[in-house]
Write a structure and sequence with these properties.
Structural class: alpha+beta
Strand content: 5-15%
Order of helices and strands: EEEHHHH
Shape: globular
Number of helices: 4
Amino acid sequence: MSFRSRDWELEDYPTSVRRQEPDPDSKYENNPRFEPHSYWASIINWNVNGFGNSKEEALGDLFTCFATRKAKLAEDGKPLPRPGANVPIQFASQERVNAHPALTQDFIERVLGFEWAFVSDESSLWDFHCEKTNELLVAKIRSVYGVCVDDIESAKLWEILDRIAAAQKPE
């Protein structure tokens, strides 16, 4: 039936729901920023997931995530994957972060504290810590580069890197 249509609903896709056991050793389990969930629902062969404390909640969240992904694909003029098709993971563009390659690497090492990290134009400070706020990294950016970025609400790395690069340009 999936070959006769181009506009599918969640019910047309093969899904899976699993109960997740908490990991007491996980740094995320007792972290106030991350709420552990007992159930995980997903579309098989496609990275669309939902979470909840019951099977129904997880499926409801999966429905919301599917609707969001479907709308984004339509907005981008891309077709909805056929149910059952294997949908490869697509990485976000790196065009904006790659505008400052040396600065990006320096930022990863000196601010984020990693030897290397994959960062894209969708990466934000939130992706690199478990704290409730970005205060510690914002303060570190100010200390390392002398640039204030606390007004960048998105916390997107490309916006932060653009601001640092602009501040480093000789006048």
